[in-house]
Design goal:
7 strands, 486 residues, 7-stranded mixed beta sheet, Rossmann fold, alpha/beta
């Protein structure tokens, strides 16, 4: 079929309409007359849409608002939907033909309202389902974190008696080891007899805290105590962030220098590896401060510590207009030796235990027989006991009536060596050795410790065992042959 150059896409032989009347005579362009049946059909379709709108508006009113003004808007939409539905149903129609003005006005106004309102309410419904899915995922993650924190707190110190490291006041029935914490707030140092969990929420601290202390002073224990408090808060408040403990030892020094974005990506990777959290969800939650990072073991980065501090400061600078929490743990000496400082208002340094606290703790552990030994060795055993971790080991290594064989004149290093020897001997004797001798168990533990130190790790998980842990060529050859056979 050829096309006429004068008629565009009209077939040859067809006459182009010359006036409006001819256009109106074309069947496909002739308006369909508004009959009572057609109006009734359109009316019920619109009433159905308005009913859906009203139902969605009720649902939107009952949901937790996703934006300001959602509830008043939902009420207004529901009321208008009801009014328009009633108006449509009450429109007068003649028996022969509907009145054009009332028909077109009611249909046009109802359609112009119903379609945008329906689109808005469907968007709200989608947002509601997304929030519900996020809430379920948040609850699942929070439960995992809560269990992990509780398990680690039980492992941190003896289950039978917990050392309250921060000087929490107790009744006489649950009295324990008391010590104040030294708090540095913008160049002002003061001693406080409060818990770190209480200090964290004080207005001048702004939920940003640096916890310092010597090895074994209880930094991680304090961090776990704070994490427990934050988990309880997140359990009762859906808007509260979830505390996540990130171990700096999981950072691989072979990577490029830390930057603000790199630090964020590392946390996303850790959330995926440890908890299976989708990277997009992790990124979104970190961006919206739905996760409160608790960064433990900053000093373990060693040569990368300065870059890590710069990355943390850069992250804070990026979020300076936002309210977000942040906690960092580090050994005091390593942090003080680092040329860079964290941009935090508040630092807490855990002080050594005093004699009264040590004596009180030994009494509650039925280990009072050790106090004379400690008191007679101020530069050895007593100095060790000022560290909570080592104090906790003593009743386990020397249950009554046993006492250390190390002389009272021995120095701190000799006493520490003796303590670890006696503790490991007693623990290995109590456990089921599964046919391994104590010497073999010690050798394997020593090898494992050397590997973890070389890998920069502080925790051992079976799933983290890698082929590069093999040391001798013979072991590597056996591994290669074994994997090929499999």
């Amino acid at each position: 079929m050829s096309l006429s150059p004068n008629l565009g896409c009209a077939p040859v032989g067809c006459n182009r309409p010359q006036n409006q009347q001819q256009w109106n005579d074309i069947p496909c362009l002739t308006p369909v007359p508004m009959t009572p049946e057609l109006f009734n059909l359109l009316k019920w379709i619109l009433i159905g849409i308005l009913t859906v709108v009203a139902g969605l508006s009720i649902n939107a009113y009952g949901e937790r608002p996703s934006h300001r003004g959602q509830k008043p808007t939902a009420i207004a939409i529901g009321v208008l939907a009801g009014i328009l539905g009633a108006w449509l149903n009450a429109v007068e129609m003649s028996q022969v033909e509907p009145q054009p003005n009332s028909v077109y006005a009611s249909l046009g106004l109802s359609t112009g309202f119903a379609l945008p309102a329906l689109a808005y309410l469907l968007w709200l419904y989608g947002q509601s389902r997304e929030r519900e899915a996020e809430s379920q995922l948040r609850q699942q993650l929070l439960e995992r974190i809560r269990k992990e924190v509780e398990d680690r707190r039980q492992d941190a110190l003896d289950q039978l008696y917990h050392i309250p490291l921060s000087g929490i006041k107790h009744s006489s029935a649950s009295s324990g080891v008391f010590r104040p914490i030294q708090v540095l707030v913008e160049d002002h140092t003061r001693l406080l007899d409060v818990s770190i969990s209480t200090l964290f929420f004080q207005e001048d601290v702004r939920e940003k805290l640096l916890i310092l202390g010597e090895p074994g002073s209880g930094k991680t224990t304090e961090l776990l105590g704070l994490a427990k408090t934050l988990c309880e808060q997140a359990q009762h408040n859906p808007q509260a962030p979830i505390p996540i403990i990130f171990e700096w030892s999981d950072w691989r020094p072979s990577r490029k220098a830390l930057e603000a974005g790199t630090l964020n990506r590392w946390m996303v990777e850790q959330l995926q590896l440890k908890y299976g959290l989708d990277p997009q969800v992790s990124q979104d939650w970190l961006h919206r401060n739905r996760i409160l990072p608790l960064l433990d073991g900053l000093d373990e980065l060693q040569n990368f510590m300065e870059e890590a501090i710069l990355a943390i400061n850069a992250m804070q600078e990026d979020k300076k207009e936002q309210h977000f929490g942040l906690v960092i743990c580090s050994r005091a000496r390593e942090y003080e030796d680092c040329p860079e400082n964290l941009s935090l208002r508040t630092a807490v340094e855990l002080k050594p235990l005093d004699n009264k606290a040590i004596k009180n703790y030994l009494h509650h552990r039925q280990a009072s027989h050790l106090w004379p030994v400690l008191k007679a060795s101020p530069k050895g055993w007593l100095k060790l006991a000022k560290t909570p971790l080592l104090l906790d080991l003593m009743p386990q290594a020397y249950p009554a009536p046993r006492v250390p064989d190390c002389p009272s004149s021995a120095g701190e290093a000799a006493c520490r060596h003796q303590l670890f020897e006696d503790y490991s001997h007693r623990q290995l004797a109590q456990e089921d050795n599964l046919g391994y001798s104590e010497e073999d168990s010690r050798r394997y533990l020593q090898q494992l410790a050397q590997i973890l130190r070389r890998q920069g790790q502080t925790e051992f998980l079976i799933e983290d065992i890698q082929p590069d842990w093999l040391e001798t060529p013979r072991q590597k050859r056996w591994f290669n042959w074994g994997t090929r056979l499999i």
